[in-house]
Request: fold
Amino acid sequence: MITFDAPIVVALSPVVAAAVWAAASWARRSRVHRAAAWSEATARIARSAGRFGAPALGLAAWLAAVALSGPRWGEERIVTETRGLNLVFAIDISRSMLAEDAKPSRLGRALREARRLVQDLDGDRLGLSAFAGTSYILSPLSVDGSALTLYLDALDPDVASEGGTSLAPALAQGIDLLHASPEIADRVLVMFTDGEAHDSLEQAVQEARRLAGLGIHLILVAEGGKQPTKIPVRDDRGTLVSWQQDESGTQILTSRRDDVLGAIADAAQGTIVAAELPDQAGAVRDLVASYKRATATESRTQHGRPRAWIPLLLAGLVLAAQTFTRRTAALIGLLFCIGPTLQAQRPRSTAEKAWDQGDSRAAAAAYLAELKAHEDDDTAWYNTGTAALAAGDPTLARSTLARAAASLDPELRFRALYNLGLLALLEAKSDTTGREAHLADAERAYREALLLKPFHVRAKWNLELVNRLRRGGGQNQPNPPPPPSPGGGGGGGGAQPPPPPPSGGNGMNESQADQVLRSIGQEELRTRRDRTGRTRRAAPAGVKDW
Reply:
């Protein structure tokens, strides 16, 4: 039985075919008439050529309309097979994992290797837990690897509700997550830790023996070095503030505990992935490859297989036969190839000519005149505001750029917000009494712009400049860059945002600004961490908090 996705199109297909046939016949009669006006010989040639052109075009149009209606018939049996195992990542997020004897740190390396494993183990059921003084589940077993990646991005010691390091709760929670999973596939617990535990080794060994008894494979991924090293304490910008200290004020030294890791691995009959291996994720992947994966087969029958390709193919064959039997086919094809290059360029408008000559005031006046005739054109508002900004008319620039900043076009909206931030920066420089208000407007505009393009270096540069001016009182202010030229839809043709400002007295280059300012990403991570973990409680005196 034949069915159609759009039956109305099938009903209209004869009308479409007749219209195309009639139009082609009229075109042929006109061609013959013009040829007869030239000479009888050319008229005979015109009558003999293209006799079957109109029927062929009508048939091709009918076939194309039928294909557009989405014909379906027949059925197909589809069998899909998936193979996967159950695997839980347990990440040590205690403060000892911030030690930098691994690059960038023990925790940083663990998260990097875990992200690689999430990508490599696509199709397996993955879970995630994090532990420090206690352990908690971030994600149950799921095939959604993207969710695990989001949680991994938000992990750091501040997420943990209790400081210190306890391995036994992490092993017990891994058992809880995996014990409920089906046993038709192997179950694996991959634990990233430096082994520096503050609970008793006996408890951890008991939980490891439970793992072995339940048939759960344990893979310990060791992090850190054997030589004692200090634990840095850094602020949100990555600047070193101090070194981790105990309750007596003594700087803490931490090192990888191979004896603890070895005892747990022996009790669980598990495997240790050495910290010295350059590719820990690859080693875990090779180990996991030997484990049994459950095979799940799903069978379904698809009724009404799409067959639109058949009438499309026939229409293409009809058009090809008609084209290659015509002597003018090669000339028509050549015309289609070179036609776009022969199109005349659109003449420059009065406003664009004034902008090209550097007369921003005349350009602003011309754009304003054009705006009165195109009030619904967001590009016209943007062009007017940008020209007014360059001409030094802040009132006109603010009103028109604010209107353009409400555009549904994300590129145009970003440029308008960028220039609004620049306008506020310029006003903050000239208006000392309202300086704070103007800087607040600039910060708001650049933050909103960075929501559209989070990695735009020049916008991040200007936002960092605003933050420095608000903190430092305006000393050593670099001159802000000029605004981008108008365009972006119907104006002056797609200009790019301005180049970064030259470094001033602060001596900051572009890459340093990108490193210093990660405000949008930092706020997102802080929000995600607040949603992920609980508020960290201060450790009582005498309790280890690393």
About this structure: The longest strand covers residues 71-84. The chain has 20 helices and 13 strands. The domain at 350-528 is CATH 1.25.40.10 (Serine Threonine Protein Phosphatase 5, Tetratricopeptide repeat).
